[in-house]
């Protein structure tokens, strides 16, 4: 493809994408294909001779589009939202047009410098303490691929710091603390690093938030047993129910254990801190007081297309100490002098994408006010949905709504009340019906043995009508599920 062919194909690509967005709402939310559909449809090897580009884009429409789940569809309420804006799409386009691996400052000075600037903008926008910013050259922010990688980086840095201070402790004695509600990234970090993980209990009475007392008891037990907890991964906005660990209590306990690193995983909820009114809910004051590192995903609730995970540390030296390997061919004048950031020492890979470009585009085009408007609008829609659930006689909230996340279940009012096991059965029937539909998407979860359904609002195109329509569908399927379940089990309400 030469430059003029690219110009033509590029214009056509943008036209196709625009058409796609005009028709997005009328498309199925979930992919209606069977496993292996694409292997059956595509040739078993790459073509021997190059093919016509028009044919390739036609096949994109024909084979790829039907296999896509539309996470940015206005009726997508599953998992958590994925950021999606045209500004970010264009940022990715420009980034792809100047391919460079950005591993050190001189690989492309703009790539490193823009990242340090926008990560400081973002830190300020979210209210993070100035010690997390790059400009002071002590802490700093870096864009990671995912929150999982950010957590892994935090664990590696924490381990390095801890073993420096405790050189005689063998790795079998080291312990990563998470809770039973921590995202799978906690257990995965243990798997990857071959370290033991302890999941601290959280209870329904505490809305699944980790309490200081629980942490203190665990620390006393483990330290008495000769074990060495060296990091706690706390969560602001757990995946199942949006729980926020009691970081204030946790921070106070950790004051007695100053070698333990506190990483705060706020992959989804952290972006809400852009609004001053949600900062307390997100425990911003405690993050600023006690957190060693903090992560939130712009690629979730933060308007930037995947991938763009914001990760900040208070002390960049512990990160660099853990990850700096500098062979001769990576040495540079500025790197040796320590006058620049070499981001290869802040993450696992060597090369990295120029992701700050899309974050820069989005931050500038939306402004802080645009971010705030969007977050407020989605929380408002989430609250509207939660009110519909509260007022209904068929459904009930399982936990208090958290920002734009509502966890609920079908719970017909009956006397005596339907026992939990039966309610779970009923809700599985209900969820099977809902998830068989292609016009809407939710996620199931389990909270201490209670099967429930999650509704997360966040797609940029979701309006009040979509939320009301979602509720109508739930009522319809709820009724049908109840009938189906009564028929199958002989239960009569
Ligand atoms: C989504 C989510 C993650 C995982 O995010 P990735 O960027 O996909 O790794 C981790 N923690 C929480 C709380 C999440 O909501």
From TrEMBL:
Protein family (similarity comment): Belongs to the group II decarboxylase family.
Keyword annotations from UniProtKB, A to Z: Decarboxylase, Lyase, Pyridoxal phosphate
Gene3D superfamilies, A to Z: Aspartate Aminotransferase, domain 1, dopa decarboxylase, N-terminal domain, Type I PLP-dependent aspartate aminotransferase-like (Major domain)
UniProt modified residues of type N6-(pyridoxal phosphate)lysine: 300
GO molecular function list: carboxy-lyase activity; pyridoxal phosphate binding
Transmembrane segments: none
GO cellular component, one term: cytoplasm
SUPFAM superfamilies hit by this protein: PLP-dependent transferases
Protein's GO biological process: amino acid metabolic process; carboxylic acid metabolic process
Domain of life the protein comes from: Eukaryota
Organism: Pisolithus tinctorius Marx 270
Protein name: Aromatic-L-amino-acid decarboxylase
Cofactor(s) needed: pyridoxal 5'-phosphate
A Pfam family annotated for this UniProt entry: Pyridoxal_deC
């Amino acid at each position: 493809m030469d430059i003029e062919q690219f110009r033509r194909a590029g214009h056509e690509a943008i036209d196709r994408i625009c058409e796609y967005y005009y028709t997005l709402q009328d498309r199925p939310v979930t992919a209606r294909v069977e496993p292996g559909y694409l292997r059956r449809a595509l040739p078993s090897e790459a073509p021997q001779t190059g093919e016509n580009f028009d044919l390739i884009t036609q096949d994109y429409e024909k084979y790829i589009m039907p296999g896509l789940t539309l996470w940015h569809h206005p009726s997508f309420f599953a998992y958590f939202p994925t950021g999606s804006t045209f500004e970010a799409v264009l940022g990715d386009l420009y980034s792809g047009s100047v391919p460079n691996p950005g591993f050190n400052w001189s690989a492309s000075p703009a790539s490193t410098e823009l990242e340090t600037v926008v990560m400081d903008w973002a830190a300020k926008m979210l209210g993070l303490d100035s010690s997390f910013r790059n400009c002071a050259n002590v802490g700093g922010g870096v864009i990671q691929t995912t929150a999982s990688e950010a957590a892994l980086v935090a664990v590696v840095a924490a381990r390095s710091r801890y073993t420096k201070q405790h050189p005689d402790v063998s790795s079998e004695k080291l312990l990563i603390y998470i809770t039973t509600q921590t995202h799978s990234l906690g257990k995965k970090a243990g798997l990857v690093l071959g370290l033991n993980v302890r999941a601290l209990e959280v209870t329904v009475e505490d809305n699944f938030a980790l309490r200081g007392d629980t942490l203190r008891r665990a620390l006393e037990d483990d330290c008495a047993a000769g074990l060495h907890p060296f990091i706690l991964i706390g969560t602001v906005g757990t995946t199942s129910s949006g729980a926020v660990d009691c970081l204030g209590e946790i921070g106070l306990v950790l004051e007695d254990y100053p070698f333990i690193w506190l990483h705060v995983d706020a992959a989804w909820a952290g972006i809400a801190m852009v609004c001053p009114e949600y900062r307390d809910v997100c425990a911003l004051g405690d993050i600023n007081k006690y957190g060693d590192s903090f992560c939130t995903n712009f690629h979730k609730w933060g308007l930037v297309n995947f991938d763009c995970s914001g990760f900040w540390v208070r002390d960049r030296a512990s990160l660099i100490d853990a990850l700096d390997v500098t062979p001769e061919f990576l040495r540079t004048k500025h790197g040796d002098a320590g006058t620049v950031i070499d981001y290869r020492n802040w993450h696992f890979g060597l090369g990295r994408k120029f992701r700050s470009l899309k974050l820069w585009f989005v931050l500038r085009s939306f402004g802080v006010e645009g971010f705030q408007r969007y977050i407020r609008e989605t929380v408002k829609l989430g609250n509207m949905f939660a009110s519909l659930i509260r007022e209904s006689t068929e459904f009930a909230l399982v936990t208090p709504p958290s920002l734009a996340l509502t966890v609920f279940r079908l719970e017909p009012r009956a006397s005596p009340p339907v026992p939990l096991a039966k309610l779970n059965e009923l809700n599985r029937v209900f969820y099977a019906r809902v998830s068989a539909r292609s016009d809407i998407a939710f996620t199931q979860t389990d909270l201490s043995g209670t099967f429930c359904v999650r509704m997360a609002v966040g797609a940029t195109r979701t309006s009040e009508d979509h939320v009301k329509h979602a509720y109508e569908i739930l009522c319809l399927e709820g009724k049908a599920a109840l009938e189906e379940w009564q028929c199958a089990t002989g239960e009569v309400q």
